[in-house]
Structures are given as structure tokens and as C-alpha cells.
């Protein structure tokens, strides 16, 4: 009988292959067994692709934070109800429990005993020390050094207990540097011994192999997606689903189409004009969350016309902000009297938004010497009252706002020219240069502690004081609250500062819009105004 | 003995009315025979007339919002519906037509003037001048037009004048090539030699003798350029680099419609249809003119 050799050789080989495929456990890139989660894959629609995934490197992008927060944790976090809770740490330090010295110059952090990195090594004080050294290195492209550059020393008392000393009290340090990411905490085991150049260009920035969050990095297909899988070394609750794929979809219409086709499970920061369509998706839950943010139009004080407060008030009162909120934002938001929104503890509830009163606007402009000409616009000393209004291009509700503002300004004799820019050009060049705009609209989002925002936006010569507003009284109040440890005392000072900003109008105060997010076929999704959507991604679970 | 050649008798109309028929009249008569082009020309004229008369024809002032009628579908009160501020779309389309057609026509004019000048100089003088100018033209044709246009718009700022200039100065290459090829042929003709022989200056030869004979294909190309310029401006606006209110165009309206394609499709349909009809009409008129100007049936003396 002719020997069927192929059966003899290939048969056993095929059987062995089949046995291997069935019997071998699923192996991740680190050679570890996959976490004992379900096999589900959550798809998170990302409107922007992160610049990198290093929790301390710039640029400061919300969408980088979203992915970072799934894979990195900090010592503390702020829950949706505004409470600070320990995350990597085991307790929140305070003056009462001795974790903060009475003079505010020393903080003692206790790390969780079971807080480990994804390579199995424990999170220790060495990681905090390394983070401090790296962030304060002037050659490292850190997202911010605020707070960290006040640190004089990080002492290891024991591997899990460390003391951080400051040169001056900085009550916001727990919020600004030890909650959330950007900046976050980096692994000593990766960055120890690296130069600044090596840190800025490290492969870790796009391939973070050592993480400490509920998920760990698996892969990044540039322009397409970032995949993370459940981290078996995570100290918190086991993630309910094994994988999250962050799918890059840089177009809101495409995000909507993906949501409607159930191709994504989360849609973060959905635009207001898509609300009705999102609500109509079967299995979708649309969330409206008050934000720690505000929309306003910065005044450029380089324009002499805008240095007159009467003109600024006239412009504010000529805009029917309530109509914008009701008709464009469908009522999902609150009007602003100054910058701080109602959910922030520093908000001054006694301040009321300016009323819509175009008649009063005309009186104020007349008082300021701007008289109506035959061309329908106001003139003074041979000059026409013409303002350039700038904001980000491609944003439908901002475009609607500026068209309305242009119309309302025309009614009071102010000529308005619209000039929009791509976001990176607007924020990177146009606003900082102070040229090419008189009114610059944008939204500012802040964390739980508002002091950093106030100092960056309204302090004389501050980095993001684009309009060159200056009021010595505001500067004095901000410095005063900087060293206060008592929040009530700080609140009183910041409310006083708010009252000045309301009067001065360094910006036209518009409104605080609600954040709009959608979860499709997903439970456990809960927006947090103090954090990004992935703060509790371990609780997300797919439904039918 | 050789056969005498047969001579066709002259048509009776020529013998009965031996008046000389001007070239322009001939072209006009031939164009009228092209029925599709005539209909297209009428449609184009009507659209242009409506745009010109927009301030008197439109039922609402331009830019006046009505926040109680946001995204209203087409109705008796608003034949084309309203936009996201309750502004009447019919009003916006007519006023937008003024801008789009102005940009289209003048941008084509700029391209034809610049291209015609370069092509005539290049074709007439030849040699090094021709080589240099044609290399410049080749470079112009090699550069991705859309990126250049977007970049210039970002740098200069989008106003009607700047957009006309940008589109015109980035579209002259094909007219230049067309005119050059005509000049290369025509400059060798006897009438040009005769003009040189009597001492006519080069500029006069180019403008008075050769150019009128080279215009036919240029005119056809100009009509096509109008359509291209309208589309290019629409693309610029669609990508956010075009005009801003109160200077709205059909492209601007299409850009605005992007966010409402499913909830308010009329915002895209009507401006889109206007662009489609105008560009189609312009192309059909161009076809008619090409046939009317066809030199093989030219009876000019």
C-alpha cells in the first residue's frame, strides 16, 4: 500500500496546532495573563488624537487626558460630587489629620500598599521624587510646572510614605499636581537616569509600557486607534470589560454616524446641535453636566476704544446672551456674571449677569463719545467703531453666536468683522500675539481649584492674559489667597476678586454651557465635571 | 482637351444680398442655432438678474435672525426654509449668488488677462522668453492649487477682492498655454509678416493683429474658468478659508450646512443646486461658444 505520508506528518502537526490554540491562555504583550474581566470591547470615540501618552508631557490636551486616565492614576481624584478621595494614596492629607503641616509647607503622603505598576513593581515615593525632578527640569517639555516648582524636596520616610516640602504655602497643590493627569505621576523605573532630550523623545511617550491605572497600554495605530486592556496589577475594582479601544474620529458628523450605527459606546463633548439625534439613538443615554468652564470673549485692551468701560458695558448689554443660551444651547447652561461658574466654590452668588438692554448700550456709547454716523455706524475723532471678532473656525455654535453678535452690534452702530482661525493657530499664535482681534471668544475649562485659572487669565502679564488686562487690586487679591490654607478665607477673597472682574469686564461674560456626553449601550458611564470621562472606566459595562 | 472644372453656383442669398457679414454677427447666428447653449444662457442670465436685484426681490433683510423660526423647513413664508438662526435661506441664496457670481466672473477675468498676457508674450517672442515663461507656467501647474489657495487665504485674509485675486492669480496657467499655442501658429501667418514689413511695433502686432484671432479658444476657456472659480471659492468656504458674514457666498452656505445635513438638508440642497445649475449653464454656454467660434466654418473675409 502506498504510504500517505502527508497524513502521517501533517496530521499530528495539525492536531498539535489545534491543541495549542485551544489550550494556551490569551497572552498579552508583557507575557501576562489577561485580567479576569469579561471579553467585551468598549469603543470610545475620540474627536482628537492625543499628542502623546506621557502623563507629564505637553501639549495639554483633553483627549490625551482621557486615554491617560484609563492607564495612569494620581494620588487623589475629585469625584462628581466635588469630594477629593484618595486614589494611589490611602488617605487625603489635611491639617486636621496631620498630613499637612500647620504652616502649609509640608505634605505627608501615604501610598496604598497594593498600588503597583503594571510590571508588578510597587508605586513608591521614588516615583513621586522622579516626577518632581523631571517636571521641574526646564528642558523637559512638561505640560506645566505650576506647584511643582514650589517643591523644595521629596523625602522618602518609607517606600510608601513620603514628605513633600514647599518653599511657600500653595493650598491648590493637591488639586493642581496630585489629582488627575497632565501632570500626573511617572514611573521611576522608566525615567531614572534619562536626560531631558531622552525624556522628550522617549518611546514610552507613544508606548507607555509601565502604567498603574485600571487598564494598561496595548497598541497605538497612529491616526486610527489606541487599545488598552485590563491591568491585572490594578488595585481598584476589576474592570468590567477587558478592552477599551479609543477610536480616533476627528469629525463630529462621523462621530454621530458612528454613534447611530452603534459603532462607538461613548461620545464625549458632543455638540449641542446633535442633541436631538443622539437622544433618538436606541440604547443611548445623553448626559448634561454642569461644567467647571465658561464661554466668554476676551477684550483686547490694546484697542483704545475698548479701554473705556462704558464701551465694554455697552457691548455686553447689546448681546442677548439669554437668547443664545435658550435657542442655540437649548437651555443647557447658565448665564455668567463673571468667570467662575456656579459649581465652583469660589463663585460669587451675589453677582447677577448684565441685562440685555440695547437702548442702554446706545446711551453708554453716546456717553463714550461714539456718535452715530450716516452710514449706520458710530464714529469718534474720524474713526469708525469697528471691532474684529475672532474665534475657532469650524465650530457651528460659535459661528451662530458671532453672526448673532454681529447683527446685535449692528443695531447699536458697532461694525463687527468676523475672522475665525483653526484652533491650533488661534490659541497658538493669534490670541497670544494680541494682533488681528479685538474680541476673542473661547471656552476655559478649569479644575476644582479656581486660583490657577484666575492667575493665568487675569493677573497682570499672566501667560494667558491675552487681552493685557491689568488691575492691581485683582493682582493683590490673588496673591493674598495664594497662601491661605483655609478655604472659607480664600473663598471670601476670590469672591471679592470676582466682583471686580464683573465690574471691569476683562471679557464679555457669556455663559457656562453644560457638557454633553452620550453613552451608547453602556452602563456605569458617569461624567465628572472635575475629571475626564474615563475616571471610572473600570465600571463601564456593555449592554445588549 | 481638359474638362473644365465644375463651379458651384453661388447661393442665391449671397447674390441677392452681397452685404459683408461681420464675424461677430456670424458667431452670434451660429450660437443661436445651439439650442441647449441658448437655454443655458437664459438660465444664467435669470440667475444673475435675480442676484443683482436681490435687495429688491428678497422678502427679508439679509442677516436678520428670527430665533422663533430656527431650522424651519421650506414653506410659503420661507420658500427655501431657514437656517440655524432663523435667517431666510432664499434671501441668503440670492445675496450669496451676488458674491459667488462676482468672484467667478472677475476671477476668470483676472486669470484670462494674466494668462493671455503671459501666453501672448511667450508665444510671440519665443526663444528664451518663451522657455522662461513656460517653465514658470509649468511650476504653477505643478503646485497643488488648493493648498496654495487655502494658505494664501489664511495669510491675506478672506475678502471678496483677496479671493478674486488669489483664485485669478492661481488659475492663469491654462489660458497662458492656450494663447501661446495660438500665437505660435498665428505669428507665422502672412498678415503678421505684412504688419512687420510696414514697421508696426511688436505690441501693436500682438494686440491688434494676432490677439483678436487668438481669442476664440480663450473665450471658451474663460467661461469654463467662471465655473471653476465658483467651485473653488465654494471649496474654500467649505473648508473654512472663505468669506465670512456679511459677505456670504454659496460656498459659505454649504459650509454652514455641514452640521445640519440630516436635521435640515435644505440648507445644503438649495445652495448646492444653485452652484450646480450655474456651473452647468456656464459649461453649456462654453460649449455653444466653442461651436460658434469654430474656425473651420469661419467665413470671415
- Multimerization status: heterodimer
How many β strands of chain A by DSSP? Answer: 23
Enumerate the strands of the largest sheet of chain A in spatial order, edge to edge or round the barrel: 7-8-9-1-10-21-11
Class from helix and strand fractions of chain B = mainly alpha
Q: Report on the biggest sheet of chain A.
A: 7 strands, mixed
Main sheet specs of chain B: none
Radius of gyration of chain B equals: 24 Å
Structural class of chain A: alpha+beta
- The best one-word shape of chain A is globular
Please report the number of helical segments of chain A.
16
Distance between the termini of chain A: 58 Å
Kindly state the mean pLDDT of chain A as a whole number? 90
Using only C-alpha atoms, the radius of gyration of chain A works out to 27 Å
Question: Care to give the gist of this entry?
Answer:
Chain A is α+β, with helices and mostly antiparallel strands and 544 residues long.
Structure description:
The complex is a heterodimer of chains A (544) and B (301). With 544 residues, chain A is of the alpha+beta class. Chain A has 16 helices and 23 strands. Chain A has helices at 5-23, 62-71, 125-135, 173-178, 188-191, 196-200, 252-260, 275-279, 309-318, 321-328, 358-367, 396-411, 423-433, 451-458, 472-482, 487-504; strands at 38-46, 76-78, 84-86, 106-110, 151-158, 161-166, 215-221, 225-230, 241-248, 266-267, 284-289, 293-299, 333-335, 371-372, 378-380, 383-384, 386-392, 415-421, 439-445, 507-513, 515-520, 522-523, 541-542. In chain A, a hairpin with a 5-residue loop joins strand 2 (76-78) and strand 3. Residues 1-36 of chain A have low confidence and may be disordered. In chain B, 68% of the residues lie in helices and 0% in strands. The longest helix of chain B is centred in the middle third of the chain and has 37 residues, at 89-125. The radius of gyration of chain B is 24 Å and the shape is elongated. Residues 5-18 and 297-301 of chain B have low confidence and may be disordered. Chains A and B meet through helix 10, helix 12 and strand 18 of A and loops of B.
Amino acid at each position: 500500500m502506498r504510504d500517505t505520508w502527508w497524513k502521517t506528518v501533517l496530521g499530528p502537526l495539525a492536531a498539535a496546532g489545534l491543541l495549542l490554540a485551544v489550550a494556551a491562555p490569551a497572552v498579552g504583550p508583557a507575557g501576562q495573563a489577561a485580567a479576569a474581566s469579561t471579553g467585551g470591547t468598549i469603543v470610545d470615540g475620540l474627536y482628537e488624537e492625543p499628542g502623546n501618552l506621557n502623563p507629564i508631557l505637553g501639549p495639554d490636551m483633553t483627549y490625551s487626558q482621557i486615554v491617560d486616565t484609563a492607564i495612569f492614576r494620581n494620588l487623589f481624584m475629585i469625584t462628581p460630587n466635588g469630594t477629593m478621595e484618595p486614589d494611589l494614596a490611602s488617605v487625603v492629607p489635611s491639617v486636621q489629620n496631620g498630613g499637612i503641616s500647620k504652616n502649609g509647607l509640608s505634605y505627608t503622603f501615604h501610598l496604598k500598599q497594593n498600588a503597583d505598576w503594571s510590571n508588578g513593581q510597587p508605586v513608591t515615593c521614588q516615583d513621586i521624587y522622579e516626577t518632581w525632578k523631571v517636571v521641574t527640569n526646564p528642558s523637559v517639555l512638561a505640560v506645566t510646572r505650576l506647584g511643582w516648582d514650589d517643591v523644595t524636596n521629596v523625602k522618602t520616610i518609607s517606600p510608601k510614605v513620603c514628605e513633600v516640602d514647599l518653599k511657600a504655602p500653595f493650598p491648590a497643590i493637591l488639586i493642581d499636581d496630585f489629582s488627575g493627569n497632565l501632570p500626573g505621576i511617572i514611573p521611576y523605573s522608566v525615567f531614572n537616569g534619562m536626560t531631558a532630550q531622552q525624556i522628550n523623545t522617549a518611546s514610552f511617550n507613544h508606548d507607555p509600557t509601565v502604567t498603574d491605572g485600571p487598564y494598561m497600554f496595548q497598541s497605538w495605530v497612529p491616526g486610527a486607534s489606541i487599545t488598552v486592556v485590563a491591568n491585572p496589577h490594578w488595585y481598584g475594582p476589576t474592570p468590567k470589560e477587558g478592552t477599551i479601544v479609543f477610536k480616533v474620529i476627528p469629525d463630529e458628523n462621523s462621530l454621530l454616524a458612528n454613534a447611530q450605527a452603534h459603532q462607538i459606546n461613548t461620545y464625549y463633548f458632543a455638540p449641542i446641535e446633535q442633541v436631538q439625534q443622539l437622544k433618538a439613538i436606541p440604547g443611548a443615554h445623553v448626559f448634561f453636566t454642569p461644567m467647571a468652564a465658561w464661554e466668554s470673549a476676551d477684550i483686547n485692551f490694546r484697542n483704545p476704544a475698548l479701554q473705556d468701560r462704558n464701551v465694554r458695558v455697552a457691548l455686553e448689554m447689546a448681546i442677548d446672551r439669554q437668547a443664545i443660551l435658550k435657542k442655540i444651547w437649548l437651555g443647557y447652561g447658565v448665564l455668567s456674571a463673571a468667570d467662575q461658574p456656579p459649581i465652583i466654590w469660589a463663585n460669587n452668588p451675589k453677582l447677577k449677569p448684565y441685562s440685555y438692554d440695547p437702548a442702554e448700550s446706545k446711551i453708554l456709547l453716546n456717553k463714550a463719545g461714539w456718535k452715530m454716523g450716516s452710514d449706520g455706524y458710530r464714529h469718534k475723532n474720524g474713526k469708525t467703531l469697528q471691532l474684529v471678532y475672532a474665534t475657532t473656525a469650524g465650530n457651528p455654535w460659535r459661528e451662530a453666536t458671532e453672526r448673532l453678535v454681529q447683527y446685535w452690534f449692528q443695531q447699536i452702530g458697532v461694525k463687527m468683522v468676523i475672522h475665525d482661525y483653526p484652533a491650533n493657530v488661534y490659541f497658538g499664535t493669534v490670541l497670544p500675539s494680541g494682533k488681528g482681534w479685538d474680541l476673542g471668544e473661547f471656552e476655559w475649562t478649569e479644575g476644582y481649584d479656581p486660583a490657577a485659572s484666575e492667575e493665568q487669565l487675569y493677573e497682570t502679564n499672566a501667560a494667558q492674559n491675552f487681552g493685557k488686562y491689568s488691575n492691581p487690586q485683582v493682582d493683590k487679591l490673588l496673591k493674598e489667597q495664594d497662601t491661605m490654607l483655609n478655604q472659607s478665607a480664600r473663598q471670601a477673597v476670590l469672591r471679592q476678586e470676582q466682583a471686580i472682574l464683573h465690574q471691569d469686564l476683562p471679557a464679555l461674560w457669556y455663559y457656562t454651557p453644560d457638557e454633553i456626553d452620550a453613552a451608547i449601550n453602556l452602563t456605569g458611564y458617569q461624567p465628572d465635571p472635575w475629571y475626564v470621562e474615563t475616571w471610572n472606566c473600570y465600571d463601564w459595562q456593555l449592554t445588549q | 482637351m481638359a474638362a473644365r472644372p465644375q463651379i458651384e453656383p453661388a447661393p442665391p442669398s449671397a447674390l441677392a444680398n452681397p452685404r459683408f457679414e461681420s464675424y461677430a454677427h456670424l458667431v452670434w447666428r451660429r450660437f443661436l442655432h445651439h439650442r441647449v447653449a441658448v437655454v443655458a444662457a437664459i438660465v444664467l442670465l435669470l440667475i444673475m438678474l435675480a442676484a443683482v436685484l436681490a435687495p429688491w426681490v428678497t422678502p427679508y433683510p439679509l442677516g436678520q435672525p428670527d430665533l422663533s423660526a430656527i431650522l424651519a423647513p421650506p414653506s410659503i413664508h420661507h420658500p427655501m426654509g431657514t437656517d440655524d438662526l432663523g435667517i431666510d435661506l432664499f434671501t441668503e441664496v440670492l445675496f450669496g449668488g451676488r458674491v459667488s457670481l462676482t468672484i467667478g466672473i472677475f476671477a476668470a477675468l483676472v486669470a484670462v488677462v494674466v494668462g493671455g498676457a503671459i501666453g501672448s508674450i511667450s508665444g510671440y517672442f519665443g526663444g528664451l522668453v518663451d522657455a522662461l515663461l513656460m517653465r514658470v507656467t509649468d511650476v504653477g501647474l505643478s503646485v497643488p492649487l488648493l493648498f496654495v489657495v487655502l494658505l494664501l487665504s489664511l495669510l491675506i485674509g478672506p475678502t471678496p477682492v483677496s479671493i478674486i485675486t488669489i483664485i485669478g492669480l492661481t488659475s492663469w496657467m491654462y489660458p497662458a498655454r492656450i494663447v501661446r499655442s495660438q500665437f505660435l501658429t498665428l505669428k507665422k501667418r502672412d498678415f503678421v509678416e505684412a504688419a512687420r514689413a510696414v514697421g508696426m511695433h511688436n505690441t501693436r502686432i500682438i494686440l491688434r493683429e494676432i490677439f483678436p484671432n487668438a481669442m476664440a479658444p480663450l473665450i471658451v476657456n474663460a467661461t469654463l474658468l467662471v465655473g471653476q472659480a465658483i467651485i473653488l471659492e465654494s471649496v474654500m468656504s467649505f473648508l473654512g478659508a472663505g468669506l465670512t458674514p456679511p459677505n456670504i457666498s454659496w460656498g459659505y452656505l454649504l459650509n454652514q450646512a455641514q452640521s445640519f445635513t440630516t436635521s435640515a438638508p435644505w440648507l445644503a440642497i438649495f445652495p448646492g443646486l444653485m452652484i450646480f445649475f450655474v456651473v452647468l449653464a456656464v459649461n453649456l454656454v462654453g460649449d455653444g461658444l466653442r461651436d460658434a467660434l469654430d474656425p473651420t466654418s469661419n467665413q470671415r473675409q
